[in-house]
Amino acid sequence: MFPIRCFTCGKVISRYWEEYKQRVKDGEEPGKILNDLGIERYCCRRIFLTHVETIDILSRYG
Amino acid sequence: MKIEVLKLSDEKGRFLLRETSSAFVNAIRRSAMAEVPKMAVDYINVYDNTSSLYDEILASRIGLIPLTADLNSFILPEECECGGEGCPSCQVSLTLTAEGAKMVYSGDLFSMDPSIQPSFPDIPIVKLADGQRVMIEAVARLGTGKKHAKWQPAVACGYKNMPKITIKDCDKCGKCIDECPKQLLSLNKELKVKDLMECSLCGLCEKACALGAIEVGVEEDAFIFVVESDGSMPVVELMIRSAEELGKKVLELKEDLESIQKDAGVAEIGQRRRT
């Protein structure tokens, strides 16, 4: 699952994840989406850029 | 001290403080981050959890959700009459019951006290697959940022000195303009600084200038103070509360010193300690 808050600064970032994911899928450039969503600092941005979603894989083995 | 508000919304604030010292500005910053109490989920009782996340991860995730509350109607568990065991004046429980397949959001938390609600209803907690269930009681308490970051109302709170850029005897070669990473300098008959407050004081323009015509310095008694709220309270309320907390500490110190003075036991001072 995507972290609720940024590890470094503590900003609540998970609420933007679903929109970000959808827009990346639709072909938008990640950097521009993050500017648009108001994720300014690089500490928050790296979490979006590097996150790998594993919850769907894990739930198969529940 | 003079305050000028540069930018202010519920989530973000930017102030210019003049005629003050870095010690005072830092005291306000520390107070906002570590001393202002707020509500957050402290522990959870798990009745059922067949989701893909461990109970501990769920507890951590729910704890980090900011809660808005009427802070005046609650007291810190340490100061409560119940001695921190838990009673209606120091804690509130929220319940979460969900069955998959669905995404569970912070808005699905049902609060026993309507004045306490998650600040944002759209924070994902856990994604449940078909047939997976969670049944949780979460207990929220007041706390301060020095104990855990979930009780920290100020996010990214900091300050810098007001930059001061002096230009004299410039030959308009324009080298410093290309060097500035924030592109703050412009040359139009005269070398000018576009937005002084944006200057990060990196000093690259100084190094680029062969004549030493540009000089980057700071105003020692002026500060740009930036603060963001995590959503549990508006920035204005956060700043007022941080000033209040700082004031309380100073008053405590004053009372202590006065009681020592009254006892007239100068030798005793070393043995006195506040818990």
TrEMBL record, chain A:
- InterPro entries (UniProt xref): RNA_pol_su_RPB10, RNA_pol_suN_Zn-BS, RPABC5/Rpb10
Q: Which GO terms describe its molecular function?
A: DNA binding; DNA-directed RNA polymerase activity; zinc ion binding
Q: Which organism is it from?
A: Candidatus Methanolliviera hydrocarbonicum
At the top level of its lineage, which domain of life is listed?
Archaea
Name-wise, this protein is DNA-directed RNA polymerase subunit Rpo10
User: Does the keyword Calcium belong to this entry?
Assistant: no
Q: Which reaction does it catalyse?
A: RNA(n) + a ribonucleoside 5'-triphosphate = RNA(n+1) + diphosphate
Q: Name one GO cellular component term.
A: cytoplasm
From TrEMBL, chain B:
Q: Where is the 4Fe-4S ferredoxin-type domain?
A: 161-190, 195-219
Places the protein is found: Cytoplasm
> Matching PROSITE patterns, A to Z?
4FE4S_FER_1, 4FE4S_FER_2
Q: Its Gene Ontology molecular function terms?
A: 3 iron, 4 sulfur cluster binding; DNA binding; DNA-directed RNA polymerase activity; metal ion binding; oxidoreductase activity; protein dimerization activity
Alphabetical UniProt keywords: 3Fe-4S, Cytoplasm, DNA-directed RNA polymerase, Iron, Iron-sulfur, Metal-binding, Nucleotidyltransferase, Transcription, Transferase
A single GO BP term for this record reads: DNA-templated transcription
Q: Report the catalytic activity.
A: RNA(n) + a ribonucleoside 5'-triphosphate = RNA(n+1) + diphosphate
Signal peptide region? none
What detail does the entry give on cofactor binding?
Binds 1 [3Fe-4S] cluster.
Q: Name one GO cellular component term.
A: DNA-directed RNA polymerase complex
**Which cofactor(s) does the record list?**
[3Fe-4S] cluster
Q: What class of enzyme is it?
A: transferase
Residues that coordinate or bind [3Fe-4S] cluster: C199, C202, C205
Enzyme Commission number(s) of this protein: 2.7.7.6
Keyword Transport listed: no
Belongs to which family?
Belongs to the archaeal Rpo3/eukaryotic RPB3 RNA polymerase subunit family.
The UniProt function text for this chain reads: DNA-dependent RNA polymerase (RNAP) catalyzes the transcription of DNA into RNA using the four ribonucleoside triphosphates as substrates.
* Complexes and interactors: Part of the RNA polymerase complex.
Q: What is this protein called?
A: DNA-directed RNA polymerase subunit Rpo3
Species assigned in the record: Candidatus Methanolliviera hydrocarbonicum
UniProt gene name: rpo3
